[in-house]
């Protein structure tokens, strides 16, 4: 009887360990990018920030208005499930978005599915940078064009 209870505990423990391993294995670049995109919509420190994810490494570029905001943002990104490390290339500088705010939010929502891409949005012009798989390049461009920016420039590298 004692052995039976012990084996149940071992079985439950094994299942919990297997589930935890499954969760870690399922975290990929796209999931990390989606999580960051959701956080960006809620945190004003993300307004002037662009980010890409490759091999669970987050690359941050752009501007943050204060050093405190920069520190808080980097710490928040480091705590995202699955992130191995953060490359901080952020600068302390004024961030002004005005009428581009909604366009940037919508572009970022599209790019959450493309971890290697980031967009610079200024004066209603969208500039894509980073990498995108060849089979998804047309789809992402069409999705962003549907937002009707003044112009869309792609500096992205298309990968086979």
Cα-atom radius of gyration = 20 Å
Low-confidence stretches: 16-25
* Largest sheet descriptor: 4 strands, mixed
Number of helices, where a helix is a run of at least 4 consecutive DSSP H or I residues: 5
Provide a descriptive summary of the structure in words.
There is one protein chain. This protein has 160 residues and is an alpha/beta fold. 47% of the residues lie in helices and 28% in strands. It is built from 5 helices and 7 strands, in the order ααββαβαββαββ. The chain has helices spanning 2-26, 29-42, 67-78, 100-111, 134-145; strands at 49-54, 57-64, 85-92, 117-122, 125-133, 151-154, 157-159. Strands 4, 5, 6 and 7 form a 4-stranded mixed β-sheet that branches. A 3-stranded mixed β-sheet has the order 1-2-3. It is globular. The N and C termini lie far apart (59 Å). The model is unreliable at 16-25 (pLDDT under 50).
Set down the secondary structure blueprint.
Blueprint: H1 2-26, H2 29-42, E1 49-54, E2 57-64, H3 67-78, E3 85-92, H4 100-111, E4 117-122, E5 125-133, H5 134-145, E6 151-154, E7 157-159
Parallel strand pairs: 2-3, 5-6, 5-7
Antiparallel strand pairs: 1-2, 4-5
Produce a short descriptive summary.
This protein is of the alpha/beta class and 160 residues long. It contains five helices and seven strands, in the order H-H-E-E-H-E-H-E-E-H-E-E. The strands form two sheets. Strands 4, 5, 6 and 7 form a four-stranded mixed β-sheet that branches. The chain has a three-stranded mixed β-sheet with strand order 1-2-3.
């Amino acid at each position: 009887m004692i052995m039976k209870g012990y084996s149940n505990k071992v079985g439950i423990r094994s299942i919990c360990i297997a589930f935890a391993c499954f969760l870690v294995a399922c975290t990929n670049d796209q999931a990390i990018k989606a999580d960051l995109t959701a956080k960006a919509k809620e945190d004003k420190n993300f307004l002037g920030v662009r980010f890409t994810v490759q091999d669970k490494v987050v690359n941050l570029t752009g501007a943050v208005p204060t050093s405190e905001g920069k520190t808080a943002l980097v710490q928040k990104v480091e705590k995202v499930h699955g992130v191995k490390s953060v490359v901080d290339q952020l600068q302390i500088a004024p961030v002004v978005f005005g009428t581009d705010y909604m366009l940037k939010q919508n572009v970022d929502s599209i790019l959450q599915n493309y971890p290697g891409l980031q967009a610079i949005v200024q004066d209603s012009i969208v500039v894509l940078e980073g990498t995108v798989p060849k089979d998804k390049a047309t789809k992402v461009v069409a999705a962003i064009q549907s937002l009707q920016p003044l112009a869309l420039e792609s500096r992205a590298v298309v990968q086979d």
